Amino acid sequence: MDYNLSKEKFNQLLSELKQEYQIYAPVRKENKGTYSANDLITYDLIDNLDDIELNKKSKYSAKEIVFPIRETLFHFMDGEQKMASEDEEKYIIFLRPCDRNAFKRLDKIFLENGPEEDIYYKRLREKVKFFVIECTEGFDSCFCVSMDSNEVERDDYSAFLRFREDGISFKLNDQELKNNYFTDVNDFEKINFEAQFIQENKIKVNLPDKDKITNEVFENELWTEYSERCIACGRCNTSCPTCSCFTVKDVLYDENKKSGERFRRWAGCHIDGFTEMAGGHSFREEHGDRMRYKTMHKIYDFAERFDFDMCVGCGRCDDVCPEYISFSKCINKLSQIVEEGA
């Protein structure tokens, strides 16, 4: 069912939803950016329509809502273990199609990539409803069309929203929300509208023919360029909506050295220490080797397993790199090398 909502009616709906859900959307945080007097666009809780930033891409995705930067797994005391208590909150996330498709990639990694599901991810993920924001123009660094992540299926969202100057067109696709919040049909103007999606980005990416990728590609001199330029800051990992690596640590409490907790926190393949092993040995010391590893995972390894690429073309890695390394250009260079038979 589709509806037209005025801004006032939409804010009223948000107010009602807040009684049951924590509502996240891209917001602008003034003077919180990387540089002095710069604003930060990121995901946070909202109260009303005016809180949502629609004209700028968020620096970070909504990933951390279901995959927290730091997450306690269990507590231990005197040899006994107790699983960390479960958050009872439910969530609504406003996001664009590329970020919704990024959650599909995370679902594959955490729920289908091994013999067991990741229970910590699953129990948060099951409490999320997605409100997809219509995106027909994109931003300068986006290449979602090339990555086939510019559109979503109807089953991918609870609601699809078109923001207009005078209100919101609201495509409802969730029976629970309909039963709880749209019972008085006279309060809403019924309409029919078709979801629109961006069909062309300024940036075009040519994906390599996976059948032509050989072992020689892994030794190509392309990767040495990134050894010279990459400073291993990890910004591309933390801003990426599909990077899912983490490290696990135990911490002991000061008051009782036999008690503590085990937690996981984000890690990244570009960061020093990511591949460090006992004895001090570390794989992929060269930064170019790390770029190769990430690139091949995003556009080759993952697709070999799940039939679609891991990268969704949001362009955030290009946006945040202090050395102006472009992942989209890296893919195009790799494609050319593959076509030339390197």
Automatic annotation (TrEMBL):
Keyword annotations: Iron, Iron-sulfur, Metal-binding
Domain of life: Bacteria
PROSITE patterns linked: 4FE4S_FER_1 (PS00198), 4FE4S_FER_2 (PS51379)
Domain 4Fe-4S ferredoxin-type: 220-251, 302-330
Leader sequence residues: none
Entry-linked Pfam families: Fer4_22 (PF17179)
Record bears the keyword Cytoplasm: no
GO MF annotation, one: metal ion binding
NCBIfam families registered for this protein in UniProt: sulfite_red_A
Name the UniProt record assigns to this protein: Anaerobic sulfite reductase subunit A
Source organism: Halanaerobium congolense
Upper classification of the organism: Bacteria, Bacillati, Bacillota, Clostridia, Halanaerobiales
